[in-house]
Amino acid sequence: MEISQQLTEEFNLRPEHVDNVIKLLDEGNTIPFIARYRKEMTGAINDQVLREFNDRYEYLKNLNKRKSEVAAAITEQGKMTEEIQLAIDNAQTMTEIEDVYRPFKQKKKTRASVAIEKGLQPLAEFILAQAGDPYAEAEKFVNAEKGVKTVAEAISGAKDVIAEIISDNAELRKKLRSLLENHGEMQVKMVKDDEKGTYAMYADYAELVPEIKNHRILAINRGEKEECLKAKIYFNPEIAKRICTVKYVKANGNTDCAKLIEEAADDGYDRLIQPSIEREVRAILTDKASEQAIKMFEVNLRPLLLQPPVKGKVTLGLDPAYRTGCKLAVVDETGHVLETGVVYPIPEVHKPAQIENAKEFLKNLIAKHKIDIISIGNGTASKETEIFVAELLKELDNPAVSYTIVSEAGASVYSASTLAVEEFPDLDLTRRSAISIARRLQDPLAELIKIDPKSIGVGQYQHDMDKKRLDSVLGGVLEDCVNSVGVDLNTASVSLLKYVAGLNSGIAKNIVAYRDENGKFTSRSQLLKVTKLGAKAYEQCAGFLRITDGKNILDNTAVHPESYKKAEKLLELFGYTENDVRDGKLSELPEKVKEYGENKVAETCELDTATMKDIINELIKPGRDIRDNLPQRQLRRDIMSIEDLEVGMVVDGVVRNVIDFGAFIDIGVHQDGLVHVSEITDKFIKHPSDVLKVGQQVEAIIINLDKKKQRIGLSIKRLAKKNAN
Known about the structure:
Layout: H1 3-11, H2 15-26, H3 31-37, H4 39-42, H5 47-76, H6 82-90, H7 94-101, H8 111-117, H9 121-129, H10 134-138, H11 151-167, H12 170-183, E1 185-190, E2 204-208, H13 214-225, E3 229-234, H14 237-248, H15 255-305, E4 315-319, E5 326-331, E6 337-343, H16 352-369, E7 373-377, H17 382-396, E8 402-406, H18 411-415, H19 418-423, H20 429-442, H21 444-448, H22 467-485, E9 487-488, H23 494-497, H24 505-518, H25 535-541, E10 545-546, H26 564-573, H27 578-582, H28 589-596, H29 598-604, H30 609-620, E11 650-659, E12 662-666, E13 673-676, E14 697-706, E15 711-715, H31 717-724
Parallel strand pairs: 4-7, 7-8, 9-10, 13-15
Antiparallel strand pairs: 1-2, 1-3, 4-5, 5-6, 11-12, 11-14, 12-13, 14-15
Helix pairs in contact: 1-2, 5-7, 7-12, 8-11, 9-11, 11-15, 12-15, 13-15, 14-15, 15-22
């Protein structure tokens, strides 16, 4: 089957759209560009589907390449047959194609290869034919010079050859691998206790392979890696051996030959097939579980990056700590650092005088810089710092000042990075971390983009994943988020610019260097003057870069320069000017277009309807931020602790992380609450992410509480039932 046809069926797309996407990808177009500016060619496929499509397309291309390599290698050996070629053509996975190639691979020295060197392959073939007495035939192969001293040695060597022939049978391996996948049992034993009891549930664990949850596979793998667990996949060996035997034993063949084949099959299964296919099945399970974990990381990371920014606020960032004090940084509305310092506000470890000094210092700081909001990191000493801030705000009696808790995951990673050193060479690590905590409130995307996604704290077993695959997926999420929001060309950092479609780190640095040397960009076309930014890169990136106060208002929209004349024609058609766009006077444009006839307008302006609608949306509100329509962050002035909680209490919270078995909810106390998947909804859901997203605001009821172990159990569905009654 042709790749395009296969992709058409798998993704349920129109053939012409599949062909167009393949053509666009092969031409080097980026996924954000294709998704945004080539909708008429793709049927408006979104960026996430395009990335899945691209992954599958690359896999199928590599599969076809491998098929050609295998076919050429077998042909070169002079062993190609119609049956083998058909098996190659029908192979659907890399594993299947390697199964076909297995008998023809150059192998390391094996018992079978030793026997073949001794000239025993013809004897093996005689036994497999089952047409005569194997022992009489074996006498012909006794040759002391070749190392075959007896009939028994000849028979033994022939059985080794047969065992390998059986082991190399692609059809047989596929069948046995399927049986292990669908009917095997994962059996796990504890071989070493871990102090934290992490693997306690796997001390004596057994579960059918198809029923094992992905996160359990990863947990078992990690337990084996840490030498706490030992796992195997069990399948009845008698059944498996019978399958091997039946494949080769003839109904009316020589019984002595049949017995030897049966013995060879048993040996081949125990020694060659079972260990091999168990490794393969374990690898399949791991790959599947890893892909799910990576998918969950992707699902969680996207809404985290797209959290609404807290715009236009002077922000105080606090990085809590016990002994070394609470590091702080004040940044203005644009993220520029105004002041840094350290205070000692925690009664448990700091002296009363230090706490009083901290209060006075922060009061003066708030007044001096007209601070609007305080951003507190959620790490060590966060709760104690929050208590201090809440009491301070009561004393301050200024309702305009509030605080919020932000995840500080990755802040320490950023503070020690080369990028942080370049940004703040004169500040120590801790103060850079406080700056990051302040800035990630003001613009989460711009700040979090600087941090390795694996350190952001929304994943599951991310450090166990294949690094190349994980980086590829997460890089795609970063790219999609950056381009969906758009980037201010005159303020964006290299960290942000490098994720714009068509750009890389080198070109991003060149853009900043050009900006530093020549001043602000006044038009998108100036990008063509940037070193190494050619026509193709300009085509890909231009629509995602914004100039807020440029000569042309369209430069502050997602309208691509290739469509400027068409957009201007659209404005002219309905009597609007660029000043009307600038002044926000196009609210009636959609209705006018509808009255005129959308298809007629599109034809007049030489646009497809999808692009036309995108342009209209941009003209109505230039410089719009898609994040503005999302639920805003919860701001606080008072505090709640776990001691204030009771079973049956209704609490508001924000989803912090979604995992396979539920979601962690920040309800305003130091410890997140867990909503188990069974407590999310009465409706059937495949996964918690079907209902809950990171950053989503939810209401839940506390169903269990262990204050000693700091565990909070929540239910959304029980609250919904209660409210319904």
